[in-house]
Write a structure and sequence with these properties.
With 221 residues, the chain is an alpha/beta fold. It has one domain: Rossmann fold (3-Layer(aba) Sandwich), CATH 3.40.50. Helices cover 41% and strands 15% of the residues. It contains six helices and seven strands. A seven-stranded parallel β-sheet has the order 3-2-1-4-5-6-7, with helices on both faces. It is globular and about 50 Å long.
Length: 221
């Protein structure tokens, strides 16, 4: 039975990954920050770990807790949007730090802490990014800090890919009805996650470092 680790699984897309992999018979490890969220994840059959992605010390602690476990797949899903404003309004230091730390700093620590274990299984380490991080596709500066953070995440993962003996993926989930995506988003979370799971399942080492959406379409940087 394969094993997956979902990083940032309390709600939205991360929680749906836990539901679907557990329903499919995978062994699931999942992280969250709050007691109630950890308990709800255990009720779904997941083994849980408390993780604040922006806390550097939590990463070696997580890697130590998972030592000896064969990890076929890990998904860095944690993310925050911050303010919706664009270039007319520069961010506060607090907003900038909160978005960059959760979306980039945490992901860089995840990669360094977990890639060796994923390499041992020849598995996949996927990062949930966003099409809003595509420089080629940027039609406006709406969500300016978020866009910059996901472009930085894309660079961090893409640049590390050639140095790693596992498959690193950057995945855009579509516009999804979650707390972040809002009620007007075009996709329900189950459809998005089912699509992302198909993309992950179909990925080979030839896809290492690539950027795909939930239908498997490769996206421009
Ligand atoms: N929804 C969309 O339309 C959309 C589109 C493109 C990309 N994405 C990306 O998809 C991912 C999931 O988004 P979502 O829509 O499911 O958002 P969401 O409902 O707001 O959930 C965000 C998740 O990230 C966790 N998280 C945030 N910062 C964290 C930190 N510092 N440490 C640990 N956990 C942290 C949250 O945990 P808490 O509950 O503890 O806060 C929560 O589990 C994000 O990376 C997002 O950027 C979403």
């Amino acid at each position: 039975m394969p094993t997956v680790l979902i990083l940032g699984a309390s709600r939205g897309i991360g929680l749906e990954f836990v539901r679907q992999y557990a329903a499919d018979g995978w062994r699931v490890h999942a992280t969250a920050r709050g007691d109630a969220d950890l308990q709800a994840l255990r009720a779904l059959g997941a083994q849980t770990h408390r993780l604040e992605a922006t806390a550097a010390a939590d990463w070696p602690a997580l890697a130590a807790a998972l030592a000896g476990e064969r990890l076929d797949l890990a998904i860095y899903n944690a993310g925050v949007f911050g303010s919706r404003s664009g270039s007319a309004e520069p961010p506060s230091r607090e907003e900038f730090d909160a978005v960059m730390q959760s979306n980039v700093f945490g992901a860089m620590h995840a990669l360094a802490a977990l890639a060796p274990q994923i390499e041992a299984s020849g598995g996949t380490l996927a990062f949930v990014t966003s099409q809003m991080g595509s420089i080629a596709d940027a039609a406006s500066s709406y969500g300016w800090v978020y866009r910059a953070s996901k472009a930085a995440l894309n660079m961090a993962v893409h640049s590390a890919a050639r140095e790693r003996r596992c498959t690193l993926l950057l995945l855009h989930p579509g516009w999804v009805r979650t707390d972040m995506g809002g009620a007007n988003a075009t996709l329900d979370v189950a459809t998005s996650v089912a699509g992302l799971r198909r993309v992950i399942a179909g990925a080979t080492t030839a896809d290492n470092g690539k950027f795909f959406n939930f239908t498997g379409k490769e996206l421009p940087w």
